[in-house]
Amino acid sequence: MTREHRHHRFRTFSATAAPSTDSVLSSSSAAAVEPYKCTARFSASRRRSSAASTSPSCPSFFGIFYLPSRRRLLMGCALLVLLFQLSLSIPSLTRFLCSAVDDNFPPLMKRLFNCNNNKNGGVLLRLMERRHLLRHELIVEPWHDESARNEDGVIVRPPPDSAEVESCSKEVRQWREREAVAALQAAKRSRWEGNMRRARSIIEHAYSLAPYNPDILTEYGIYVEMARSDVVQAEGFYLKALARNPRHEEALIRRRKALPLVEEIDNRMMREIERKRDRFMRIPHNDSGLKRSMRESYFAYVYHTVAMEGNTINLAQTRSILETRMAVAGKSIVEHNEILGLDAALRYLNQSLLEVQEITLEHILALHKRVLGFADPLSAGVIRNVQVFVGNFRPPDPDFVMVELEELVSWLNDEETHRLDAVEVAALAHYKLVFVHPFMDGNGRTSRLLMNWILLRAGFPPVTIPVEQRHRYYNVLREANDGDLRPFIRFIAELTDRTLESLIASSASSLCEIGGNCSGDAADVRPADEALDTDHRGHGERRNNRQQSSQPFCAMEHGHAGH
């Protein structure tokens, strides 16, 4: 191909034969030297005919996109996309681009900027509809619509068509069941093939679709037992499956095998907690490390307990309020009063209730009265007389609240209860009071105080439920509502064990500071035979020993330094 033919390809809008090389260079130089002249003549040339607009001396505005350079081609396409996006919001730019459309315009751009057939500024109507999906006004019913209120002023709405809702929910339920069964079969195949990783993802998907299907619960328990070696959690799944289908054969067989192992694990954990409790009781009360840790645990207990209910005051601010009795800027009065109320309840527990031999209903009401004494004095210590709901859970009717509380108090003072482990009794008392939900507010705080009262009487340190474990706390409470109290008891036992380890470690560090033994058993001063003998004593004898050595929460030495 000659040079003349190559230059003929680059001449975009010429209608004549290909000129010579010199003429092409001269015309290109003239266009480059006089760009402003071409720009000035462009607005006039766009109103001419297509034949007149193909002047070789001044190329069209879109002529740059016919250059052979790939880089310029990509830059030109990007520029066109940008112009199109801007044209959706700037009508004047759209009209300007439409006025430049001619026969030599690229076909793709013609479909985007079709000015002859549209009245939307050159942009296709269907593209405008994609950008503006709502072309009509929204019909919004005002909240003050009088037709929606009854004679008492309560807003009432006509219920939806129950048949339509039922049919829709039925279809969704059937689809979920089919999907869950298919996932269950796939999980079984993966487990048989040894692909436990794939089996896990599939069985979790099936469990999310049908969490109460006994076959899925059993398969989930099998996976947990085989892949994680967690027989405790697996036995819980088998129990849930049997709660839905008491005759489920595979769940019966597997739970019969797992139950003795689970009981042994639980008993071993309780014995370990008892052993650590005895080590804790032998630490001198004037130990500087223990006193410092108990002091910090007091502030932590107040902070985590109120934070569990949504209080936004942090730990440092909580400590400042308790030590100085000064308000924190930017926090509400209600949040301050919640902290002061819990502090008053703890002082009442330390100073008045530790030596009480029998728990009464008046003691529980007195605790609640101090919990809400600052935040809501009208409902403090008052049993509710209306029905309340806690999520999907419905507590007992108000007519039965007093009966339930009397049964709880009678159970706490029963001799059979005294033979149980103190951690188990404390956890059960906590759950029973939360289940009854006797107050309008402050039930959780009062339940945790009752739990720690029982632990303190037995010689255990108080247990703090961290706000970071709030979701697990609610989950085990939900499992208790479903009939299995053991996960909640294990949760409280784990927290008790962790608290004992922390306090024992703090006392050991105190012994190191004064030159004592810094080994891990520094705080354990019992002989070995006494330690072994403690593990084989009866629960009632252990309880009597613990009651004689009960000590206050924090000795309240931070007392009220600001007073």
From TrEMBL:
Active site residues of this protein: H437
Organism this protein belongs to: Globodera rostochiensis
Pfam families hit by this protein: Fic
GO cellular component, one term: membrane
Family: Belongs to the fic family.
UniProt cross-references to InterPro entries, sorted A to Z: Fido, Fido-like_dom_sf, Fido_containing, TPR-like_helical_dom_sf
Molecular-function GO terms, alphabetical: AMPylase activity; ATP binding
Record key words, sorted: ATP-binding, Membrane, Nucleotide-binding, Nucleotidyltransferase, Repeat, TPR repeat, Transferase, Transmembrane, Transmembrane helix
Domain Fido: 359-494
PANTHER family xref list: FIDO DOMAIN-CONTAINING PROTEIN DDB_G0283145, PROTEIN ADENYLYLTRANSFERASE FICD
Compositional bias of kind Basic and acidic residues: 532-544
Positions of region (Disordered): 532-563
Bilayer disposition of the protein: Single-pass membrane protein
Record flagged with keyword Repeat: yes
Glycosylation-annotated residues: N350
Subcellular location(s) per record: Membrane
Name listed for the protein in its UniProt record: protein adenylyltransferase
Annotated site, Important for autoinhibition of adenylyltransferase activity, chain positions: E309
EC number: 2.7.7.108
Binding-site residues for ATP, renumbered to this chain: D441, G442, N443, G444, R445, T446, S447, R448, Y473, Y474, N481
Catalytic activity field: L-tyrosyl-[protein] + ATP = O-(5'-adenylyl)-L-tyrosyl-[protein] + diphosphate; L-threonyl-[protein] + ATP = 3-O-(5'-adenylyl)-L-threonyl-[protein] + diphosphate; 3-O-(5'-adenylyl)-L-threonyl-[protein] + H2O = L-threonyl-[protein] + AMP + H(+)
